[in-house]
Amino acid sequence: MEEKSLFKLLIIAVALLAVSAIGNIVLYTSFIDAQDQSPIYQVSGSTVVNNNENTPKELSYLDYSGTMMEGADLSNAAGYKAVFTGADLRNADLHGARFTLADFSGADLSNTDLIGVKFDYANLKGANLQDADLRYADLRGAELDNADLTGAIIEGADIRWVTGNFTR
């Protein structure tokens, strides 16, 4: 009889541990989902100076709205859901960077090296891409409403599912 009681207690303990583990997973998942809703760090309105190859290249979830980044070296950077609304990135080096779901609306990317950049599903509404080098860029699903691509090089770029009216 005592063995049955111990067995029942063991089953109850295992069930409680399982419920606790599931609760922790749910809490962790909701924390991660909350992070996906908005940037976790904001540097908007700043000026990036003395930028070089040692500059951090992890830009995911950061908000660089209105930031002056002319000539910045962001080559091979990762900027998942990063925000660059109205940022000045003229003459910057972004070749090989990954900006999936990033927001570059109203940003100035003129004369920028964007060779092989990944702008898939990015918001480029109203962006200035004049004379930008977009060779082999991934623009799948990007929003280009009112973007200016005058003089831009788009040889080999993937423009499937691009939306919006833009100047070429």
Number of domains: 2
Strand content: under 5%
Largest sheet, in brief, is: 2 strands, parallel
- Output the CATH homologous superfamily of the largest domain: E3 ubiquitin-protein ligase SopA
Per CATH, the architecture of the largest domain is 3 Solenoid
| Strand element count | 2
| Annotation field: number of helices | 1
Tell me the radius of gyration. Answer: 23 Å
Key features?
168 residues; two-stranded parallel ribbon; 1 helix; 2 strands; elongated; Pentapeptide repeat-containing protein
Walk me through the structure.
It is a single chain. The protein is mainly alpha-helical. The protein folds into two domains: 37 residues; 129 residues, 3 Solenoid (Pectate Lyase C-like), CATH 2.160.20.80. Helices cover 21% and strands 2% of the residues. The protein is built from one helix and two strands; from the N terminus they run H-E-E. A two-stranded parallel sheet has the order 1-2. The longest helix has 36 residues. The protein starts with a helix and ends in a 105-residue tail after the last strand. 38% of the residues are buried.
